Amino acid sequence: MAHLTFLLLLLWVAVTVSTVVDLQKRIYGGIDCNQNERRYHVSLTLYADGRCSHCGGSLIKNQWILTAAHCRSRPMFAVVGVHAGQRNVQRIEEINIITHQHDDIMLVKLSNPTAGIPTVPYCPNINNDPTINLKCATMDVVNCNNPFWSTFCQQNPPDVPQQNRLCLQRHGVDIRPGDSGGGVIHRDNLYGVIIATGELACTCETLSIRVCPYMTWINQNAGLKT
């Protein structure tokens, strides 16, 4: 979705195979999104080896961002309020990073709470029914046990236990570099974080990590209550 500069990937996901998801950001096969949607998405800018790259994230509280651990870098800064139409863009360079000991999920604490930026509730109910409304693009939840992923899509398997994975795929639709860390959303609640796709566009499943199994870790490290 070339027209949405900085706006981070957004997916809707149910917990069963063959349901439909919706996508957002610089995806292949997407459309422009409403400027009033997904205002809790955050842009993370990373610097490593003289290069600048980007990841996505979700503002779960006014001082906490949830993203993917492989996005970790120093230096690194967060930009909130990046959605088109928002006027209170805030660049925050003083951050504290907390990565999971084993899996590809990470918390980013901002030096100061954000002001005027909405947050997204996370994993309030894992049994919500699927929605039929599509936001920007669609994908299907597919079987994560497909051996094609490990043999072709990535030489190095992602740091996510098999039971904590959500795999997504549809012909002609895929994420792009910079979408890692973006949120998996169902009915305006955060259920997952995007972590990987194949090297070639539209050839492999998009892989995300479920948020619900990490609720205790998130709340203990961030001092939060759902």
From TrEMBL:
Domain Peptidase S1 intervals: 27-223
UniProt cross-references to Pfam families, sorted A to Z: Trypsin (PF00089)
InterPro entries assigned to the protein according to its UniProt record, in alphabetical order: Peptidase_S1_PA (IPR009003), Peptidase_S1_PA_chymotrypsin (IPR043504), Peptidase_S1A (IPR001314), Trypsin_dom (IPR001254), TRYPSIN_HIS (IPR018114)
Signal peptide start and end residues: 1-18
Keywords of the record: Disulfide bond, Signal
KW Disulfide bond (keyword) present: yes
GO MF, any single term: serine-type endopeptidase activity
Keyword GTP-binding part of the UniProt annotation: no
An example Gene Ontology biological process: proteolysis
Alphabetical list of SUPFAM superfamilies matching this protein: Trypsin-like serine proteases (SSF50494)
Name used for this protein in its record: Peptidase S1 domain-containing protein
Organism for this UniProt entry: Maylandia zebra
